[in-house]
Amino acid sequence: MNLFTIIGVLVYYPAVSFASALPLVLNTWSEDFTGATRTAFDVISQATGRGGRLDALEQGLNFCELHQCGGSVGFGGHSDASGEVTLDAMVMDGVTHDVGGVGGLRRVKRAVSVARGVLEHTNHSLLVGEAATRFAIDFLGFEEESLSTPESVEEQAAWVAGGCQPNYYRAFDHCTSSCPPYVLQAPGTRESGTGQQMERWGRVGREEHRPRYSPYVEEGSRQQQQPSNHDTIGMVVVDQEGELACGVTTNGLGHKVPGRVGDSPVPGAGCYVERGVGGCACTGDGDVMMRFSPSARAVMGMEAGMAPQEAAEAVVGSIARYYPDFRGGVVCADAGGGVGAAAWNLRLSFSTQSPATEGVQVYSVTPLGGKRGRAGDVARVS
Q1: What are 29-87's pLDDT values in tens digits?
Q2: C-alpha to C-alpha distance for 225 and 212, rounded to whole angstroms
């Protein structure tokens, strides 16, 4: 079976009319993340228009923010290097291209609701840090409360006791007495992609001169890919008329540098939608992925005629040309309810629900590249 045949198999609902595939909810991850899928679908099944799409996104993503999906989304998840938990979130409407986002939000649990407030009650697209918190409390009426839990405090203490390793600082030859130790990361030499994959997408630069970037660090480390690393949920909603919206919420990397804002609240990085075309959402190594505007590029690929699966694969492959060790995934839906997903060095799963499914359907994606990949170079969904 050649590549294009396999891609054809991965475009969902091939025998279903567009009307019966809508409305659709698609989001990253599975297990307790399916509660977000179900919540959003219940809303979009009964609602129409922009308000219905944003209600579905907000309530679906709120589910994970308040239930700590995967033990990592929302409050009590990964703290930064100073021990504080902060949140990033975004919502985008495909009809108007209106966007609202927050980065580094402090002491407010429902980050995606604050992001919607930015969209609906300001002329801005992104608010960050303490000022975003003041906007949420003073203008939107949100309650101020700690985002830490006994578990997050314990995790931070264990990290400090372990010499603050791993961390995301590098090339600080001074301040070596501080924690984290500001030491230069060893340059990466491992090449994750197979020769066939790298021939397919090409290779740019010399890998031996690139430091490793990964929220999952090294094989065997305590931050190796685990359910607790799934700290981002991205969602795409397609209503009964084929209109789209997307949203993302996350608490970011564990032990990130204080002040770091990831890809999630950045339109075109965390998620992106285009009227009449489709939408995509991303998860994984946001510091690398945001450099490529992956969700926007995937949607543009669909606009140019690619199927959702083909667009998703093209995007992760284009990132791997520069960073073959990165770990990340993309989920895409077109305006008719077709779905695709691809991942690189990441065991991605995703959840969908539509009238064409019996409840929430969960799929796993075999990653392109890396020794964690199974037989074959093409992402396969089961």
Answers
A1: 999 999 999 999 999 999 889 999 999 999 999 999 999 998 889 999 889 999 999 99
A2: 15
Is 286 known as a binding-site position?
A: yes
Tokens 């074959």 belong to 376
366 among the known binding-site residues? no
Residue 287 in marked binding region: no
pLDDT by residue (tens digit) across 305-327? 999 999 999 999 999 999 999 99
The total of other beta-carbon atoms located within 10 Å of residue 158's CB is 10
Q: Is 188 annotated as a binding residue?
A: no
283 is in an annotated binding site: yes
Best CA proximity match to 265, nearest among 246, 278, 279, 240: 246
Residue 116 marked ligand-binding: no
| Dihedrals phi, psi of 379, to nearest 5 degrees | -60, 130
Q: Domain limits of the chain?
A: 3-148+224-365
* Percent of the chain topping pLDDT 90: 69
Element housing 195 (H / E)? helix 195-201
Q: Indicate the pTM of the whole model.
A: 0.84
Query: What tens digit of pLDDT does each residue of 80-90 get?
Result: 999 999 999 99
Homologous superfamily of domain range 3-148+224-365: (Glycosyl)asparaginase (3.60.20.30)
Q: Which residues are catalytic?
A: 232
Q: How many residues does the chain have?
A: 382
Q: Which amino acid would we find at residue 51? A: G
Concatenate the DSSP letters of all residues of 35-79 into one string: HHHHHHHHHHTT--HHHHHHHHHHHHHHHHHHHTGGGTSSTTS--
Query: What's the pLDDT at 321?
Result: 96
The rounded distance, in Å, linking the Cα atoms of 327 and 368 is 10
Contact between residue 88 and residue 249 where contact means Cβ atoms under 8 Å apart: yes
CB 39 within 8 A of CB 63: yes
Report how far Cα 184 is from the mean position of its chain's Cα atoms: 28
Enclosing H/E stretch for 353: strand 348-353
